Each structure stands twice: as structure tokens, then as C-alpha cells.
């Protein structure tokens, strides 16, 4: 279903780049399979495409149908792992211009993913005169950004529909047992969906966290899960032919040889937020104990006219992982111009996707010649099944990669540092001493 081409990476690597890692990969595979490695309690995503809660899945589909029929807008409130996956899939399978181009169903707005007053005011302005619903997503139920946003949009909804009317338009995705959002959802009687205990935020796109907003966008979530299930089955097979093993081994080998940055390259504007999701997945999984490739992303060909210079000739610290879709959805033919003032008649009659393909091939070789190893992942099409495959491929390869690096792939202790400082500076009870200490430094 998905192909990985390592041929423009292997010239940069010693001959045994894969064979020397097969034992470590087998050990990583067992840790993921059995949940027996560091952070093993958070490997619930490994079998999720097969073991997901089918009753809840049907409720997600029913809720999405309801939202699609009674709402002109849906406000999806969440941050990090409770945000990026949904946005990535909605944009990749539809468009970054979703709200201008979708047919049927609600406009989708993302909120609570930052603390910008201006961004908040913009979404309020865009939804206040529409029939809207809210999907608030927070596993912990206590994250400041979504909690503040939810307070604001809940008040707006209650003002518009009354408490009872608002109650029927709020969908809460959170922990099954604990947290402030869980308490509120129980008390108010919102429809609830669960973030499973064993699935951390960045691995949660195929739970209700991602699936409800994605279904509201009209995506076939059964096909998405089917693609992920196929990937799960294919990638569980141990061995040197396994593309997730190859990807994890290649990036680990390049890292040990001194590469510091991995750039995810997409050629579709709709791929941009998939890059954001991927950056969180790898950055939060691997970036600890002073280790790991820094995950970056670019959109070609646009960024070839900006970042392309650095990639070609700047410090030789990066590798590229290109994700391409074998087929475009539509076709655009370049017209013939009798005057040919722009000299482009050599392209007349050609499809734009042919031009894009040659740009991709030329860029790949130029970058390889410039000392940038390239890995190429090819998905058959920009459809739900392929994207399900792609999501699982990166999740699985990321889990393997974390164990190759000998870190805990499933915690994120570094995220707490800014939160504690912010709480102290905001005057949260219990942080008084820290507040004084921080204020003195600022
Ligand atoms: O991956 C993670 O754990 C984080 O990005 C979280 O998803 C993010 O901080 C949001 O957390 P929560 O869902 O608890 O609000």
C-alpha cells in the first residue's frame, strides 16, 4: 500500500546501516507489541486499528451526522495531540480552504490551540451568528489553553441557546474517569467520548480525539481505520523488508553519523498540517535526554524559493523525508500560446502534475548532490485509506525510533516546564514562591 524508497539515502550510510540494527529493531518491535518497554503503559495505539471500541465508533458517526445536520459551524477546542491530528487529516483529505470549499456539513474552526486574543475574537465573530456546536477535547481536562477557550465558547453557546440547548450542542472528548472536563461533562450531561488511558495525545488521532472532527468534515472514518488496520498488519511482520524498520533504521543511522535535522517534505499545500502533526509526533516522542533529530517541515515547491537555498548549500546537518501521493485527484492541462512570449510552449498540452513530478525528481537529485540524504514515502492517493496507512506508518516507525534511541518514547516531561512557570506568573494558588522567584528574574 505504501512504499519507502531508501536508494537516495543509502549512499550516505555504511553498508550495515540496516543489518546492524535488526536486533535492536526486533527488541523494539517486541516492546511495542507487548507494551513491555519504557512507557509501555502508553502503547494502546499499537493495536488500536483492530481493537478500537466499535460501540463508541458508531456513536462518533451518529454524533457527526447530527452535527452535520444541525450546525453551520463546529468549534473544535484542543491543543497539541488533542488538535493537530484532526486538523492534519481534515486539511489533507479536503483542503486548507475547507471552510470555503466543503459541500454540506459545518464549517470547522479550531480554537484553544494558543492564547491569542485576536485569533479567539476572530473565531467568535465567525461563529456567533451561525448555528454552531462545540467539540472540546482534552485528555487531562486541565490544559489551560483549551479550558479557557471552552469557558468562552460555552458561555457564547449558552447565551444563544440557553443551558439546555447548549448542552445538546457540546461534545466532550476526555478521560474516561478523571479530570476537570470529565467532571463538568458528567455534571452538565454532555455527550462524552473517551481518550483511552493507554493512548497519549500525539498518538490519539485514530481515537475519538481525531475521529469526531474528521467525521464532521465528511471524511469516511471507516476507510481511515481500514487503512490503519492494513498498515498495522503489514508492519507487525519483523524483518529487513519492513518499511517502518527501514525508515527507523535509516534515520537513526543518519543521526548517529551527525545529522541533526529531519525535514518532512510535502508537495501538496493540503499536507502542511500533516507536517505539523508529524513534528509533534517525532519531536515529543524522541526529543529528550539531550538527543534526537529536530523535526522540521517544508512545502515544496513554494519553500524551494526560500528554504531551498539553505537545504542546498547551508550547513550539512539535515536529511529529507519526502511524502508523495502517486496520483493527483484532478488534472490541469497547460495551454498552448501562439505568441509563446513566456517560452513555455514546450510544456503545452502537458499536465501540471507532470511538471510537479519533474520538479520533485530534480529537487531530490539536487539535494542529494548537495549532501542531503533523501527518503521517499509514496502513498497511492490522497484518500482516507492511504492517509490511515500513512498515519499508522509514522506512528509505528516513531515508536521503533524511540526505542532505538533508548529513551522513553511515550512521556513528555519537558512540556511541564513552561506550564509551571505560566501558572506561577498567572498567580495560580500553590505557586506563590515560584512566582516571586520568576518575577525577580524578569
Ligand atoms: O501529546 C501530548 O501529550 C500533548 O501534546 C497533549 O496532547 C496536549 O498538551 C494537550 O493535552 P490535553 O489533551 O490533556 O489537554
TrEMBL record:
InterPro entries: G6P_Isomerase, Phosphoglucose_isomerase_CS, SIS_dom_sf, SIS_PGI_1, SIS_PGI_2. It is found in: Cytoplasm. Pfam families: PGI. Keywords: Cytoplasm, Gluconeogenesis, Glycolysis, Isomerase. The keyword Isomerase applies. One of its GO terms (biological process) is glucose 6-phosphate metabolic process. It comes from the Bacteria. The active site is at residues 284, 419. GO terms for molecular function: carbohydrate derivative binding; glucose-6-phosphate isomerase activity; monosaccharide binding. One of its GO terms (cellular component) is cytosol. Its EC number is 5.3.1.9. Pathway: Carbohydrate degradation; glycolysis; D-glyceraldehyde 3-phosphate and glycerone phosphate from D-glucose: step 2/4; Carbohydrate biosynthesis; gluconeogenesis. It catalyses: alpha-D-glucose 6-phosphate = beta-D-fructose 6-phosphate. Its main location: cytoplasm. The keyword Cytoplasm applies. Catalyzes the reversible isomerization of glucose-6-phosphate to fructose-6-phosphate. Belongs to the GPI family. This is Glucose-6-phosphate isomerase. It comes from Flavonifractor plautii 1_3_50AFAA. The lineage of its organism: Bacteria, Bacillati, Bacillota, Clostridia, Eubacteriales. The gene is pgi.
Amino acid at each position: 500500500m505504501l512504499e519507502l524508497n531508501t536508494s537516495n539515502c543509502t549512499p550516505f550510510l555504511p553498508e550495515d546501516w540496516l543489518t546492524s540494527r535488526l536486533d535492536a529493531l526486533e527488541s523494539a518491535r517486541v516492546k511495542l507489541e507487548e507494551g513491555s518497554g519504557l512507557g509501555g503503559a502508553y502503547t494502546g495505539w499499537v493495536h488500536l486499528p483492530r481493537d478500537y471500541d466499535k460501540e463508541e465508533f458508531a456513536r462518533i458517526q451518529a454524533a457527526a451526522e447530527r452535527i452535520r445536520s444541525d450546525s453551520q459551524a463546529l468549534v473544535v477546542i484542543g491543543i497539541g495531540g488533542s488538535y493537530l491530528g484532526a486538523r492534519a487529516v481534515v486539511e489533507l483529505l479536503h483542503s486548507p480552504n475547507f471552510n470555503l470549499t466543503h459541500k454540506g456539513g459545518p464549517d470547522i474552526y479550531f480554537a484553544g490551540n494558543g492564547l491569542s486574543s485576536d485569533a479567539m475574537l476572530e473565531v467568535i465573530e465567525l461563529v456567533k451568528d451561525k448555528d454552531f456546536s462545540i467539540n472540546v477535547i482534552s485528555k487531562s481536562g486541565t490544559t489551560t489553553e483549551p479550558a479557557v477557550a471552552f469557558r468562552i465558547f460555552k458561555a457564547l453557546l449558552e447565551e444563544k441557546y440557553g443551558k439546555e440547548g447548549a448542552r445538546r450542542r457540546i461534545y466532550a472528548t476526555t478521560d474516561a474517569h478523571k479530570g476537570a472536563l470529565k467532571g463538568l461533562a458528567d455534571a452538565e450531561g454532555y455527550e462524552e467520548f473517551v481518550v483511552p488511558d493507554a493512548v497519549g495525545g500525539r498518538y490519539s488521532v485514530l481515537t475519538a480525539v481525531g475521529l469526531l472532527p474528521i467525521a464532521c468534515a465528511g471524511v469516511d472514518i471507516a476507510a481511515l481505520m481500514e487503512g490503519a488496520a492494513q498498515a498495522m498488519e503489514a508492519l507487525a511482520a519483523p524483518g529487513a523488508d519492513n518499511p517502518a524498520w527501514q525508515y527507523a533504521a535509516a534515520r537513526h543511522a543518519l543521526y548517529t553519523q551527525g545529522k541533526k535535522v529531519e525535514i518532512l517534505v510535502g508537495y501538496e499545500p493540503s499536507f502542511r498540517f500533516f507536517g505539523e502533526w508529524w513534528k509533534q509526533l517525532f519531536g515529543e516522542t524522541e526529543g529528550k535526554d539531550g538527543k534526537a533529530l529536530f523535526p522540521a517541515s517544508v512545502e515544496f515547491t513554494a519553500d524551494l524559493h526560500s528554504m531551498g537555498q539553505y537545504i542546498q548549500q547551508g550547513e550539512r546537518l539535515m536529511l529529507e523525508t519526502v511524502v508523495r501521493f502517486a496520483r493527483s485527484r484532478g488534472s490541469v492541462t497547460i495551454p498552448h500560446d501562439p505568441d509563446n512570449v513566456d517560452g513555455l510552449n514546450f510544456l503545452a498540452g502537458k499536465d501540471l502534475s507532470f511538471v510537479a513530478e519533474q520538479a520533485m525528481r530534480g529537487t531530490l537529485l539536487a539535494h542529494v548532490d548537495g549532501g542531503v540524504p533523501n527518503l521517499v514515502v509514496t502513498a497511492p492517493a490522497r484518500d482516507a485509506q492511504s492517509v490511515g496507512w500513512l498515519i499508522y506508518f509514522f506512528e509505528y516507525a516513531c515508536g521503533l525510533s524511540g526505542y532505538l534511541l533508548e529513551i522513553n518514547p511515550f512521556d513528555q516531561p519537558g512540556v511541564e516546564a513552561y506550564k509551571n512557570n505560566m501558572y506561577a506568573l498567572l498567580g495560580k494558588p500553590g505557586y506563590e514562591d515560584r512566582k516571586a522567584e520568576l518575577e525577580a528574574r524578569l
